[in-house]
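Hi everyone,

Forwarding the result from last night's run.
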Amino acid sequence: MDKQRVESLIEKYINSACSAEEEQIIENFLDQVQAKNKNWDTSLFGPEDSVKEKIYQSILQKIQPPTANHKKQVLQWHMIKVAATIALMLAFGFAAYWLFVHPKGEKEYHVQTLTVSVPFGETTSLKLCDGTKVTLNAGSHFLYPESFNSTSREVNLEGEAYFEVVHSDKAPFVVKTNELDIIVLGTAFNVCSYPGENIVETTLVKGKVSLRVNHNNATTNNDIILKPGQRAVYSKNANTLHIERVNTRLFTSWKDGLLVFSDTPLTDLTQRLHRWYDVGFVFLNDEIKTYLYTVTFENEPLPDVLNILAEMTPITYTINSGIVTINLDIERKNKFKIK
């Protein structure tokens, strides 16, 4: 966070003019600085009284009345403001020194990037500094800054996440994947972008998002607007993006502990089971890969899930050392009407 930005936010903070997002930004910043520097270090900063005087003069110059003709009560109000400012800055001594005295402060302070990695078989949720809620699916990697700036809010995703973004006209929220940038002001949507998989999916529940393809060979260079109830599917192999109407529950129910499938091929279904249960799958028959399933699972153990699939279609399975091997049950095949 640069000096000018912090100064502006502190002044708004004192005057109770900050938005909830701005209050969170300045409080996070000051808390972090205070936590790292609880004691005044004379050898590093110099005499405390001298630094406080510099701070006082710096603040006084910033809010000094422009002319000598202001009314007495206006000048008194300014002095109250000076006192309040000094009280705030002295409460965060190092922060004050950093912002107004230290000549290299602007170059040396960097916003930290945080990383969350979710193992297979697990999900997790977090709340960003602006209040945005993020739920991460199994096998996901999520990078985000400890605080956002005033004009943009950017995060990076590998895997799958459901976002509930706090609205901001001035600072669009951008989810960056290797292939797509998803740009929003405030909305709820799901992004699925796993490395090694051919497609990147964005499913919009409410609000509005804009999609921008990053690939140089993509068939479109224009931003694509997505409406609620629509799903955008980007093919990495073909470098194409198409939009379709969907039941969003099929693509977002995982955040509520549900796996919902509708006419889903066994290969796609097991891909989700792979992440959900942290197991691998091997098919001994090509025909069974195309079997379609319409079913919902809610926190069932893996053997129960596989038993249900075996009841729905003529398949058999074995589980050994984290590998599920699936084969065609020839004896039962003729009894089933396969989709």
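The CA atoms of residues 204 and 226 lie 7 Å apart.

Cheers,
N.
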